Amino acid sequence: METSSLAKRVSGRFVAGSSLEEALAACRKVNQDGLTVTLDYLGENVSSLDEAKVCRDMYLRSIGEIESRGIKGNVSLKLSQFGMDLSEEACRANVRELVLAAAGTGNFVRIDMESSAYTKRTLQIVYDLYSETGSCGAVIQAYLKRSESDIDELNSRRIRVRLCKGAYLEPEGVAFQDKAQVDLNFVKLAKKLLTDGNYPGIATHDETIVNQITAFVREQKIAPERFEFQMLYGIRRDLQTKLVRDGFRMRLYVPFGEAWYPYFMRRLAERPANVLFIARQFIRG
Ligand SMILES: Cc1cc2nc3c(=O)[nH]c(=O)nc-3n(C[C@H](O)[C@H](O)[C@H](O)COP(=O)(O)OP(=O)(O)OC[C@H]3O[C@@H](n4cnc5c(N)ncnc54)[C@H](O)[C@@H]3O)c2cc1C
User: Fold this and answer.
1) CATH code for residues 21-258
2) Is the C-beta atom of 66 inside 6 A of ligand 1?
3) FRET partner for 50 with CA separation of 20 to 30 A, picked from 21, 207, 214, 278?
């Protein structure tokens, strides 16, 4: 399934290609439209440390190519892809090597946030690597009840934060279940980051929230250079273009690689209309 042409067609809506070369071509095009990128080599929950090393090496190549080809962008990675479930020590060593390589070219590594089972350990790794290099940042999920205090801590350390709503199924004990509550918390946390944070990334396709944020920054006279919006490759291109036209910074999360299935399923789950899109591809195929 993963390599069939049908799979390629349906995943191509959200994934920039299976090879680094294809992904870099997509990044160049995105750059030409005035947006920056963060490149994500798909893969999570690897089952061996050898696999984790293959991922690390692909990221090292990506950082090198971003530098040598003058792509305006950085990389985003998941700790479970770097071996977190197998050995935290090996995972740390892999990520450290990458963050040091990025620091060496003046670049930056975003450490994505996975399910709540990883939150505390992920933040600790970001704290440690940031203290050593100053070249990595965290992701905070607005659906988690702990997020406000995490943001206070990250802001006090001047660590860059990407704020998103959160993409995993979480129990009531740790996460708000109601969409309205998540949205409210997102706006509250975004304002905190815009006021007290260090170059936050506001990652959402929610137009109502985007409008609230643009109104807030205008009212507070927060310069557009002090933060960026972030969206996923292939989602709300109309809104991406409009924000760039209005003078805001926009970074696209550009995933590539063969292991697209879990990423793709999260995107389907977010929006039932995407299932119709896929169904149409099957009928045509
Ligand atoms: C740059 C970036 C990085 C991210 N990194 C992480 C991470 O590290 N950890 C994590 O848990 N989550 C991450 N996410 C995912 C995030 O948590 C949400 O699951 C996802 O962005 C959908 O939420 P939303 O804010 O767009 O709002 P929603 O309330 O889900 O959607 C609002 C509107 O956006 C549009 N939309 C949203 N999703 C889709 C879609 N899949 N297809 C088409 N239209 C859509 C629709 O118009 C929808 O009505 C990231 C998201 C972005 C944009």
Assistant:
1) 3.20.20.220
2) no
3) 21
* d(CA 90, ligand 1 centre) in Å: 30
121 flagged as catalytic: no
Mean pLDDT of the chain: 93
Taking the centre of ligand 1 as the mean of its atom positions, its distance from the CA of residue 68, in whole angstroms, is 31
For the segment 250-273, what is each residue's pLDDT rounded down to a tens digit?
Answer: 999 999 998 888 888 888 888 777
- Our answer on whether the CB atom of 62 is closer than 6 Å to any ligand 1 atom is no
Mutate to test the pocket of ligand 1, among 81, 205, 233, 254 (most ligand atoms within 8 A of CB): 205
pLDDT at 126 over 50: yes
For residue 6, the model assigns a pLDDT of 61
Q: What pLDDT was estimated at residue 268?
A: 81
Identify whether 158 is a catalytic site residue.
no
